[in-house]
Structures are given as structure tokens and as C-alpha cells.
Design goal:
Strand content: 15-25%
Strand order of the largest sheet: 1-4
CATH architecture of the domain at 43-98: 2-Layer Sandwich
Shape: elongated
CATH topology of the domain at 43-98: Alpha-Beta Plaits
CATH class of the domain at 43-98: Alpha Beta
Largest sheet: 2 strands, antiparallel
């Protein structure tokens, strides 16, 4: 083995084409990857925002209501990959989000 092969890689060794520009996730619609989709029941939701905090894809939609309180308003299916974290983190007795088979 050559001495050069033992050296540690640096940032200069990374291929430029594989690094995605920051803040571009909004342009990638990854919802077509899903095999399951979260279904939100607005009548069961207590707006604790645990799903919003837990979602790795920022797919839980929120907005202020008439009382200026932040509430869940739906799910962004264009970016949701169907991981199910939102459903598993929803309070056990409530289950305002359940996972269903994706219909394609």
C-alpha cells in the first residue's frame, strides 16, 4: 500500500457535483416515495405540535388561528416521505394521525 492511500480525506476531496445547495429541499417533491401516508383527523387533534416538531421533512402544516395560537392545519404530501414519525409521536390516547396504505 502506498503512503498516499493512508492519508485522511478532507473537504477538498469531496466531489462538487454531489453537494446540494442549502435550502433547496422545498424544490424536491419527494412524496412519490411513500408506501404509506399519514392521515390527520382535525377533530381529534389537540394541536400539541409534537408531530410538527418531530417531522424530519417539515411536512406538517401549521398556522395561527383566530386566537393567534399556532395550530396544525394539514399535511404537505408533496414533501412527506411516509416515515410515520408524526403518527408514532402523536399522544397515545389521541391518535390524531394514523398511517394508511398509499393509494397510487
Amino acid at each position: 500500500m502506498r503512503k498516499e492511500e493512508n492519508r485522511k480525506l478532507t473537504v477538498l476531496d469531496l466531489p462538487v457535483g454531489d453537494i446540494v445547495e442549502a435550502g433547496t429541499a422545498v424544490t424536491f417533491h419527494t412524496g412519490s416515495w411513500r408506501s404509506q401516508r399519514p392521515v390527520w383527523d382535525k377533530d381529534k387533534c389537540i394541536h400539541c405540535l409534537t408531530c410538527w416538531i418531530s417531522c424530519p421533512d417539515s411536512s406538517i402544516k401549521i398556522a395561527p388561528d383566530e386566537k393567534k395560537t399556532t395550530v396544525v392545519t394539514g399535511i404537505d404530501y408533496d414533501h412527506c416521505k411516509g416515515c410515520g414519525i408524526c403518527a408514532s409521536e402523536c399522544p397515545v390516547k389521541i391518535r390524531a394521525i394514523t398511517m394508511e396504505q398509499e393509494k397510487k
